[in-house]
Amino acid sequence: MSFPKKMSMSEEYLPFRLGEPRFDQSTFNGRLRHFLNVIDPRTLFVSESRLNASVRMLEQFKNGSLPPGVTDAQLWEAQKIKQAIIHPDTGEKIFMPFRMSGYIPFGTPVVVGLLLPNQTLLSTVFWQWLNQSHNACVNFSNRNASQPTSGTKFFQGYLGAVTSAVSIAVGLSVFVQKAERFSPATRLLVQRFIPFPAVASANVCNVVLMRYSELKEGISVHDDQGTVVGTSQVAARHAIMETAMTRVVLPMPILVLPPIVMAFLERLSLLQRHKRLVLPVHSLVCLAAFSLALPLAISLFPQQSQIHVSLLEPEIAAATACKIVTYNKGL
Description:
Layout: H1 9-12, H2 28-38, H3 48-63, H4 72-85, H5 103-114, H6 121-141, H7 151-178, H8 184-193, H9 195-210, H10 212-217, E1 219-222, E2 228-232, H11 233-249, H12 251-265, H13 269-273, H14 278-298, E3 304-308, H15 314-319, E4 324-328
Antiparallel strand pairs: 1-2, 3-4
Helix pairs in contact: 3-4, 5-6, 5-14, 6-7, 6-9, 7-9, 9-11, 9-12, 12-14
């Protein structure tokens, strides 16, 4: 299964680098192009045989036994497939709904549910629970797994994330419903924006709680040869902070733009005459916002981040001659 793609000459003949991103990670544009590859939903349909062939090709390249005729473009495609499906730390396949390439297809119905107008208390609780359950599984599946995480810690983090999301959303909903100075139209508009503060704050709780073991145990840091030189709690704090920031930025376009767009579209005579079109149009608007927001948010920081050894624990600085080390931020 191949994915045809238009490439410039410079991209087509770019020398392959095993385990490294194809595009320059020091620039936002390079990271954006890299993560557009990471979230490409077409990799969800890669067959087991195609995945095995990709892994085998990369192993042959690593061992210097690559058959003649294999191009750099084929190697980049093989690496894209492997990285989309297999966790870099555990070497295991990530369950399809929790891959980054599946985040938009499987997450869009939840976003639509979060933004439905005239939410009841029960529906608010349900959609916030479902959203944070999905986020928790995505965060856990794409975490830095260089250190083991117990099932008990996962459940504690999940429970805390869901509780925070539901509490914030329900609290804001009750506040708006009791605000007598709001007109019915204003109350409806404000209620549509409630999911953003609830989701943004809960997303931060979700990341911190789901990955709390990294703060306690630390994560592996690597020298410029890819060799592990130690386990750092400082690097873990940086990784989780960067991930949490992306989770605050991510829901901004998703949960803010659709209410604004739909408030305008629902005034159009077409939607007023054909009420059945409101939900499909709403879904398309949410999908477009989600497709825009995800690559922009996760491109804020490179997945393989760098940090100066002077900022890390003394034992790590003593274990390597490198001034800069890298760590896997996770997604």
